[in-house]
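User: I'll paste a sequence; please echo it back and then give the predicted structure.

Assistant: Echoing your sequence first, then the prediction.
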Amino acid sequence: MIQSIPILDLAALGVFLALWVCYTVAADHYTSKGRSLSAVMGRHRLVWMRSLCDRDNRVADTAIIGNLMRSVAFFASASLLVVGGLAALMGSGRRGYEVTLDIPFMADGGHEAFEMKVLLLACLFIYTFFQITWSLRQFNYCCILMGSAPMPEALDADKDRFACHAARLQALAANSFNRGLRAYYFALAMLGWFVNAWVFMAAAAAVTAILFRREFHSKSMKALASIVDAGGRA
């Protein structure tokens, strides 16, 4: 099957994977150095969890976690639906391939190449599903942890220790969700592969540039960082 796939398609796949891996490594590195949107949000989570310990009424805090979990659950359900649709497309054999040829701008690289593209897209969404469901499970752990939060009259040392660990768990949940959401963006780039390999590579580069700007140079990142700098506590 691999022998029948054009070299340019394989090269485009290599570029796609290289961009994805390099961006992930760079994002993790800069986050560990505290110079990313994720790192800034991590400091806000720490402030949130510390403030939670000083409140008797924590209904608002549980509502916030509930909203986060609903957002994550939506993407988990969507991933499963996409995987089901792609499985149905692969199961249709040549009929599905012939139908897609009627779509404008669709490249005809052969049935084997088409099957490989659909299979890889399905694998990408399976990866997405696992990342997002793991994120959802970690947010469930956050709910349990918040239920065991120290009361306002507890020692400050106990509150600080709880806030540190609770914020860390939330950061891990958010990181898993970010990885799953990132896969959605790169899946959109992979759709360009069905046009041709050049569009695929251009789309992958564009997605990487957009993600990089949003994570490290967006107005949201600067606004959140300025709150951290001005507030002192974060």
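The first helix runs from residue 7 to 32. The radius of gyration is 22 Å.
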